[in-house]
Amino acid sequence: MSELDSLHFQSVSFTGHAPGARLIVLGAVHGNEICGTQAIRRVIGEIESGQLGVAAGSLTFVPVANPLAYARKQRMGDRNLNRNLVPTDVPAEYEDRIANWLCPLLAQHDVLLDLHSFHTAGQPFVMLGPQDNRGALEPFARAAEETALALRLGVRRFVDGWLDTYAAGVARRLAAGASSREADVYYGVGTTEYMRAQGGIALTLECGQHDDPAAPAVAYRAIRNTLAHLRLCDVPAPVPVADTEALRLYQVVDRVHAADAFARGWSSFDRVHAGEVIGTRHDGALVVADSDGYIVFPNPNALPGQEWYYLAKRSTRV
């Protein structure tokens, strides 16, 4: 039996007696990010044991969105599931097979909570979608609802600007003559972007560093708070976070060579100052910050041609 023959897709659904929102919660979109899987299984157990009831609407859990990556205990199977997420008639990679199953499932729901973790140490944070707009890149009309939910997940840091910052990076790659799929703006479309394109609202919660023992509790609290906020469960509604910090991504920097190296062990949301050396290219050229701000998603193991780190500035959105 081949490795793929031993794998399967799993979703667990519950439906209340009254009408209500349709929520889907994902874990392990990246196979080495298991805090969401642990939290999802904990909540499923509470529902099945009768500790928690689903009073209204419907609720779908996907404990492991990428079974191949999860089985291998690594970020990806054949490629990043959270890029270029779209059904295809000719699946070439394992993540294409997932998309053909997962995308129709997402489209059956109104709200997505996608649970992740990150490479380096740092506080949990929520990735927000765009503000309301009628633009061509990511038109949206439900920012107020999405932000209201984000404020009730239990974390205080909020980050937005993902897809337009990614698009700016794509434009730079194209200008440099890149021809890979990473030079396609729609390669930046993942679970949340796909969900918004179907008319829903969607949040990515980064629950902490991959191995942080507190990360599963962050994910669990977020699920419970989401169920309460959407009135799917008959429990008190969560109070919105008051002491917030909002940042906006504005630049993505790619790793161009395997010998490109950071100047030090950066963590997400470390402050950087204009002119500060962030890293060194393989040819000795220094990579410096263009202004004061914060480093986000530093990945010392990024593959050449992929995102090495992002830069962010303070925002007044939340």
What is this structure, in a nutshell?
This protein is α/β, with parallel strands linked by helices and 318 residues long.
> How far apart are the termini?
51 Å
Note poorly predicted spans: none
Judged by helices, strands and strand pairing, the structural class is alpha/beta
Average per-residue pLDDT, rounded, comes to: 94
Main sheet summary: 11 strands, mixed
Count of domain modules = 2
List the helices and strands and how they pair.
Blueprint lengths: L11 E4 L2 E9 L8 H15 L6 E7 L4 H6 L21 H14 L3 E8 L6 E3 L15 H8 L6 E4 L1 H14 L15 H7 L3 E9 L5 H15 L15 E11 L5 E2 L7 E3 L4 E4 L5 E3 L4 E4 L9 E9 L4
Parallel strand pairs: 2-3, 2-4, 4-7, 5-6, 6-8
Antiparallel strand pairs: 1-3, 5-7, 8-14, 9-11, 10-13, 11-12, 13-14
Helix pairs in contact: 1-7
Labels describing this entry:
single chain; 318 residues; alpha/beta; Aminopeptidase; OB fold (Dihydrolipoamide Acetyltransferase, E2P); 2 domains; 11-stranded mixed β-sheet; 3-stranded antiparallel β-sheet; 14 strands; globular
Explained architecture:
- The chain is of the alpha/beta class.
- It folds into 2 domains: 4-243, Zn peptidases (Aminopeptidase, 3-Layer(aba) Sandwich), CATH 3.40.630.10; 248-314, Beta Barrel (OB fold (Dihydrolipoamide Acetyltransferase, E2P)).
- The protein has 7 helices and 14 strands.
- Strands 1-3-2-4-7-5-6-8-14-13-10 form an 11-stranded mixed beta sheet, with helices on both faces. A 3-stranded antiparallel beta sheet has the order 9-11-12, with no helix packed on it.
- Helix 4 links the parallel strand 5 (125-127) and strand 6.
- Helix 1 (35-49) crosses helix 7 (215-229).
- The radius of gyration is 19 Å and the shape is globular.
- The mean pLDDT is 94.
